[in-house]
Structures are given as structure tokens and as C-alpha cells.
Amino acid sequence: MNVTKVSDDTYLLSVNVENILFEGLWEIPNGVALNSYIIKGEKTAIIDGVCGWDGVPESLFALLDKLNIDPKSIEYLIINHMEPDHSGWIEDFKKINPNFKVVCSKKSAELLDAFYGHTENVTVVTDDDTLDLGNGHILKFVEIPNVHWPDTIATFDTLTGTLFSCDAFGSFGNATESNYDDMLKSDDIDFYENEAVRYYANIVAAFSMPVKKAIDKCSALPIKIIAPGHGIVWRENPNKIIEDYIRYASYQKGPAKEEITLIWGSMYGMTEKAVNYVVKVLEEENIKFNVHRVPEVSWGTVLASAWNSTGIILAMPTYEYKMFPPMAAVLEELGKKKVFGRKAFRFGSYGWSGGAQKELDEIMNKYCMKWDFIEPVEFKGSPRDEDLQLIETRIRDLVKEVRNAVNS
Ligand SMILES: Cc1cc2nc3c(=O)[nH]c(=O)nc-3n(C[C@H](O)[C@H](O)[C@H](O)COP(=O)(O)O)c2cc1C
């Protein structure tokens, strides 16, 4: 666990979590930091939990000791949202400090009761309510529901201009003691930008409308620092992560970047032959592309790649009168996360009846995905030269469409 100073009287407690699936589902190859913050005015508040704390009082005592904080003096626990990655420590915290007061939204108060049976000393706050910690630290609350739980608030310290933004403006990627944009090199910033897209696509994407509303609401504040619940703290250039999040939200309906994501699966290598051919065509076209084989590549990786890409190529065979099942599973997830408005093309092998296309159409309709498809190419068994040539023509058409969509 790292303890670092964010600003006057303001500290970040950060814990890296690795070797788990985040939300029990998403692969996090570079880990994720869980951030909790302490503000020491005349009174002390902790914002969100220290979920990496092992529950042993002495280890938290030692940590707080570094900051000259007596755990019993923490008067307020501000819950920005009740997702257990931040709230899961509350019962342990009660063991060392039974008298703290909770400050949270109305919905968080309901969830606090439902999850942990905690109802005492709870103050419900709403937009523009304030909490005065003394020494100038007046905290103002902003409701930003559905980013990404319905109970979410952001907390703004009017003295330091710090927005404790909860899951908004977060990223994956382990933290170090240099967990601040002003302490990172541009390569590190690029690393966290990739981790932010992955975080956005996996965790927040389905809530892009609420994200836009939250950004509008928070932009009215005189923000100097953005301190999210995950990832790095933005002190030098908080506008960068705001602008990045505006961009990520806009990718939902497309166009996104001038990139193509090729998702493919194959049982016996027939579709794979055409995939190998297509990779060469894409290289010739000199467009950035990412290739993901399903089910080998995780949903989270495919989703992050698709979120960034204006063009999607799908390659899969027919399987029991439907499409190759791992492809259907990934497409369902893209539909649920609202990856809409892509330029797309599909090809694949079949044996006797076909059927993959029918299921693809069903998924597109079910989630109203509005992908603009070029006519598909299906071939029986192994692709012949004429099949490959037709596929090549359509891939080149797709590349043109992607470039037009991004540059028009
Ligand atoms: C388990 C299984 C189920 C299949 N079901 C169908 C089917 O319903 N309709 C069809 O036309 N072909 C079906 N096929 C044939 C495949 O689509 C065909 O072998 C195709 O060439 C496989 O391409 P791949 O090597 O890229 O996986 C099936 C093949 C397998 C192994």
C-alpha cells in the first residue's frame, strides 16, 4: 500500500490489486490501483475505502501513523459509491473506529444497509450540499448517478480544487509512488491512456450517456486536481483526462479512431486461411489494426480494441446452424456495452447449410447496434482464389469507409 501526498492536508492511500479478474470477469494484465483519500481539516475525513487493507488493525494504524492520524479521529467516511471494491472494508473499519459518521447519497445509504446492515450516523447528501471539515476544507457534493453505480457522487474540496471523482476518470494499471501525472514521463502517460481506454470500455462503456452528463456537471467546478477511485491522479493537466473521457464517450456511436479490429475464430483452419490473407491486405493498406482470436483472447481485450476502432472485421465459421459460439458470446458483450455505429465486414467458412449470418443479424438487431456492413463473403470449406479476391476487394472498401468516416 502506498501513501502519498496529493495536496494540502490531502493524502492518497493506494493499493494495487493483481491476479484477479476485476468484477470477477475482466482480465487486468497490468493490475489496478484502488484509491482512497484522506483529508485532514480540523476534522478528518476518509473518502472511499482502503480495500487492500488486510483487516488487521495494526497495519492500518501503522499506515495512518505515518500521517500522524489517530484512526479514532477519523470523523467522516464519505462513500462516493457503494461498489464493494471500495466499500468492502467498512465492517473491518468499524472494529477500530465504531463512531464514524457516514456521508453518502440516498441510494448509497440504502445499499449500505442492504450490503452491510449499517444504518447509524448516516447523513444523506445531494447536489450542492457541503461538509465543512475546518481549516478551509469545505467539501461540496455532486451527484453523478450511473458512473457507474446508480448511487455515485463526486466530492469536491473547494480549498484545493480537488475533485474526488470515484469511477469517473479512472484507469486500470498498477500505481507506483509516482502516481501523479506531473511525476510521470510521456511513455508512462501513454501506458495509462491505454489502461484508461481498457477501463472505460470494460467498466464504464455502457454508461456513456451518464458519463457525458457527469462531465458537464463537474466541468462547472473550478477543478485543479482530479483524484479518481482507480489509476493516476491528474494534478498538472486534469483537462487531459476530461478530454480523453469526452472522446471515449463519443466512440460509443462511432466513428472512433482510424483503426480496425479483426475478431476471428476457426475450428479446423478454413476461415483462418482467409484471415491470414486479410492480414496481408491490411498491412498493404497501412492502416492500424488489431487481431484477436476468440476464445483465446479475453473479452476485455477485444472490447477495448473494438471501442477504439471505427472498423470491425468478423471472421467465423458456421457451427450447428449458428455462428462459432465464442464469437457470438463476444458480440453479445459488444452489444451490451453499446459498441454502436461501426463500419463492418464479415466472412467465414461453412460446410453445408450456413447459419452464422442469421445469428449475426439477430445479435445486431437485439442490441440495435447499427453497424454498417459491407456484403459478407461465405465460402464452402476452404476459400478458393476467387473467394480471397472478393474478400480482398471488400476489405479495401472497408478501409476506405473507415478513413472517410474518421476524416469527414
Ligand atoms: C461441430 C460442428 C458443427 C458444424 N455445424 C455446421 C452447420 O450447422 N452448418 C454448416 O454449414 N456447417 C457446419 N459445420 C461445418 C463447418 O462450418 C465447416 O467445417 C467449416 O469449414 C469450418 O471452418 P473452420 O475450419 O474455419 O472452423 C460444422 C462443423 C463442426 C465441426
What can you see in these coordinates?
This protein is of the alpha/beta class. The protein folds into 2 domains: 2-249, 4-Layer Sandwich (Metallo-beta-lactamase, Chain A), CATH 3.60.15; 260-401, Flavodoxin domain (Rossmann fold), CATH 3.40.50. The chain has 12 helices and 21 strands. It has helices at 57-66, 84-87, 90-96, 106-116, 186-204, 208-219, 238-250, 270-285, 299-308, 325-336, 356-366, 385-407; strands at residues 2-7, 10-17, 21-22, 26-27, 32-40, 44-47, 74-78, 101-104, 122-124, 130-132, 138-143, 153-157, 162-166, 225-228, 257-264, 288-293, 309-315, 318-319, 322-323, 343-350, 372-380. The strands form 5 sheets. It has a 7-stranded mixed β-sheet with strand order 1-2-5-6-7-8-9. Strands 10-11-12-13-14 form a 5-stranded mixed β-sheet. It has a 5-stranded parallel β-sheet with strand order 16-15-17-20-21, with helices on both faces. Strand 5 and strand 6 (44-47) form a beta hairpin. Helix 10 packs parallel to helix 11 (356-366). The longest helix is centred in the last third of the chain and has 23 residues, at 385-407. It is elongated, with a radius of gyration of 24 Å. The site of flavin mononucleotide has 20 residues, from helix 8, strand 18 and strand 20.
